[in-house]
């Protein structure tokens, strides 16, 4: 890295990049909370414009595109394909990309706040917001569905590098080696032990990876932190939300976006559990400070808005709802693993998350009832009244001719 940004030189960098002049000045600049991956600097100019300046602390492994390049690529895609760029909720905020120094600059929307923070502070879950999210996501997936020009564009790699294939996010935990004993706390080892003990869990993730079917442009990190809601959302007819942080976007499976987002909603519920070693999981779920029943109308509004805006996806993926539930379970597993890696911590609450994740992955039909509060057919019924939606074909009860764990290692 040739240049290391800091609060002392960021204004000069913006001036050299032509994003502001010496006359603009700067009324304030501050470093945002550290996330170990990136340096984030919020710069406020005298004319009240605000820039979020981000710099990767370290580059990816050789031959892999930088994450910032991916977001810059998405910015260029919006310029080339105005059909997507006209969707205001996913309009690009990027104004500058410096590949050599791994720096990305984008406009900062001070009138918006993260949806996760909105839910935490307001403790309300309006279905209007969820409906806009579902409609917006469906618009992105529908516009790029099986469109070769979008797929080819997203296959672009940085100069001098190659992108061999699109990443399949439906993966289990990394192979566990003796090095893990020096990387995670002793109590967290129980998570890996339990994960390895559940062969049905490994098998379900292997099947999910095997059936992963990329067909459109996906966000690939669609959690509540990456959705902004306008401070005056109750008084607006549009521009209620913005989808941000497109660093992981690529050609993928739409069920992954939906499942990852639903996992983020489930985290609100699971993080409010009353956790104690003497309390069974079922009792703890009933004592949650934010009951799942409070979130279900919002989650249901999200999925129905998506299906109403993109009913054709059900002809392509008849088992979409079940796949979404399984990806939600995988999302919960990833949340646990990320927590262990970043905070070196694992507690009883995480054990409960693991059990819920396992149930969603291995028993998706029951998971649909748990998450949405109704069956798959009841979810699809309003869509079927308007569109002829084929019913999911049930898998024949045949004995599989492969050994589950072998298939997992080969996927």
How is the topology of this model organized?
Elements: H1 10-16, E1 26-31, E2 38-45, E3 50-56, H2 67-80, H3 82-85, E4 94-98, E5 103-107, E6 112-114, H4 115-122, H5 127-144, H6 148-154, H7 189-197, H8 199-210, E7 216-218, E8 227-230, E9 241-243, E10 250-252, H9 254-270, H10 281-286, H11 292-309, H12 313-316, H13 320-343, H14 348-362, H15 364-372, H16 376-386, H17 404-410
Antiparallel strand pairs: 1-2, 2-3, 3-5, 4-5, 6-8, 7-10, 8-9
Query: How many domains, in number, for the residues?
Result: 2
- Strand runs, count: 10
Give a short account of the largest sheet: 5 strands, antiparallel
The proportion of strand residues reads: 5-15%
The percent of residues in helical segments reads: 40-55%
Listing every helix as H and every strand as E from the N terminus to the C terminus, the arrangement reads: HEEEHHEEEHHHHHEEEEHHHHHHHHH
- Per DSSP, the total helix count is 17
Q: Provide the gyration radius in Å.
A: 22 Å
Residue-averaged pLDDT: 84
Q: Helix/strand/pairing class, anyone?
A: alpha+beta
Largest sheet, spatial ordering of strands: 1-2-3-5-4
Q: Which CATH class of the largest domain is shown?
A: Alpha Beta
Ends apart, CA distance between termini: 35 Å
Shape: globular
Looking at the structure, the CATH topology of the largest domain is Aminoglycoside 3'-phosphotransferase, Chain: A, domain 2
